[in-house]
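Fig. S4 source data, part A: sequence.
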Amino acid sequence: MYKKKFFEDQDNGDAGFLPIIPINENEMDQDKDLVIPDNIGLLPLRNTVLFPGVVIPITVGRDKSIEAVNDAYKGDKLIGVLAQKDLSVEDPTAEDLCPIGTVAKIVKLIKMPDGGTTVIIQGKKRFQLGKITQEIPYFRADIQLLEEGDVKSSEHFDALLSSVKESAAQIIQLTPNMPQEASVILKNIENPNFLINFVSSNLNNELGEKQAMLEENDVVKRAEMLVALLQKELQFVELKNKVTNKARIEIDKQQREYFLQQQLKSIKDELEGGDANGKEVKQLKKRAEEKKWPQAAQDMFNADIEKLERMNPATPDYSVIYNHIDLLLNLPWNEVTEDNYDLDHAQKVLDKDHFGMKKIKERILEYLAVLKLKGDLKSPILCFVGPPGIGKTSLGKSIAKAIGRKYTRVSLGGVHDESEIRGHRKTYIGAMPGRILQNLAKVKSSNPVMILDEIDKLGSDYKGDPSSAMLEVLDPEQNNNFYDNYLELDYDLSKVLFIATANSLKEIQPALRDRLEIIDLSGYAIEEKVQIAKQFLVPKEKEAHGLKKVPLRLSDKVLEKIIQSYTRESGVRELDRQLASVMRKMAKEYAIHGEIAPTIKAEDVATILGPEIYSNDLYKVAHMPGVAVGLAWTYVGGDILFIETLLSDGKGELKLTGNLGDVMKESAITALTYLKAHAKEIGIDPTLFEKKTIHIHVPEGATPKDGPSAGITMLSALASAFSGKRIRPYLAMTGEITLRGQVLPVGGIKEKILAAKRAGLKEIILCVQNEKDINEIEPEYIKGLKFHFVKEMKEVLKIAVNL
């Protein structure tokens, strides 16, 4: 009885519908005698416009709609069908209904197993919506029927109908899966009104366009509107077919290539040894399928794989290409670990791994906070500078643990070849990628914490300057396109958190130093070392020597004895070795006798570790005129420095010995000139300068010494020698001098102060501008020390020599 739709399915608000047509299209003429009441129940539909003469099945789901359909079916089977203005409205009001609709006859009502209702309705006549007379339980309204009117045949109207049939036929022909009889049925429709209504109902266009056609009373204008919509649809179908055909041609090409590849594989299988590398290539391709890398890396992989497939594994180039592909696959392209920017967690990790360092930890937490807020790493690269053994590298490891990143370390000490950073060109025998990419390939992450250890130990020779290569690595504006000679591709290093370590800034290239955010790590005080030993080193060494469960403790006095008499360092490495020696002796004792004393006493230390290596009483032998104690900074921390001055008969000659550098020699000359100029004022006989030969010596002549810090020390030693008065006992000093008699500030104050305390000194002279450095030292570490802050050299002489 019914024929299925011609164009694509459309979605109905209650269900998807399928436009169908009666075999007898003349039913529209018979509807002229149909009696339609002036008041009728309404059925709102979403995304559907019903045209007169067209039959569609719909699934009714809304309660109001089900009740309206049931009542109509029990009565005259007539119902008013209206489209909703807004498809998203679930429970429409009168304002949501279009003003023009179609009176429909319910042909059949079917109850579905799931409780829904399916009805087949046929459009009869258009109507104008009048007054809503009922809203509960469903809409009823007064309606006014709209007459279609007869259309006189004309060349224009006949041309429009011919265009409708022709365009619709073309769309049917270009649309896949279209019923074969569609074109035949379309040609056999003779009723103009039904032809327009039928094609309009089946056309795949906007709801508003269909509603506009339904509301148009003039059949000729309606035909013109339909022709325009058909042309638009035809253009869309043609374009769609063009895109589909192009895709099909591409697929056919790929299938052809696949077929040829399979044939080539079969030929290789037949040849002896022709597919010896097939398994390796297959494995490499399988690994590549899982990679999310840039297109440039994919292209290079494809090119290398093609070369590898054509090569015999015995050829030398095979291993070169294979290793290059292996690096491509091992590099963590866009593979990152999730960051943990919980500052409380970071604080706990840092406190657990490192004692003290409050300001350093605070700086690290500030750095992590910036990373958390910014979400990127375009900020200065951290560089920890300090003496050996104070925990620079382990601080970087703690940062990695704190933020949940992987950790890797690149040792730069002694590296003097630029290729170690940027990689060798793969044409050379034994070529390798640079150390940066090697470590990334090992750690399998694009955003690890990478420690650039001993960056100040980078060298340079005829093979290039690795410091210059590091400029690109550590520049946040450039390292997102770091070029490795071996990889031959740009690699993004911007996600890597670089942390450099160094013992001294002097050896770092200025341009490289400019890219680093310097964080100074000073040496530990004795009190800090005691706490580090108690909390970290002793438990670690006990466990390492099998004494974890043995009751053995070292008192603070014992630890201080070991620190002062058996170590001379800013860090704790030597202390760790001495504690390991203690534990070995205790382990031996426990293994032989089955028990040991639970506490090691201070007097037992010499028995276990041997005679004391260092003494704190050196200053006692220096209580004579002309000898002053200075403070020096070395790469292992601070130290005390003796300046010895001796006068002998001569002609005013100045001799300097002790392997002194130019700056120290100039300081001695400056101090002597100042004394000569102010001899009478100070109380020194001016004639002595012409009658005596002045000899200044700094012991430990094998060790080079330089720097301006010994200026006031040399001045005090000279004044002591010329005046015959001894320097105040337990006094040390450090500061630079000028010919105008001023005292200038110097660096390394914390290390120098801690060295003075280790040596047993009690008073220290410093420039007044160094007072801020003293304020940064924990008060308990300088307890017992008295500081004299001076501005002029006269004040120094007053305190040191009482002149």
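Fig. S4 source data, part B ends here. The chain has five domains: 2-145, 278-330, 343-520, 526-609, 618-800.
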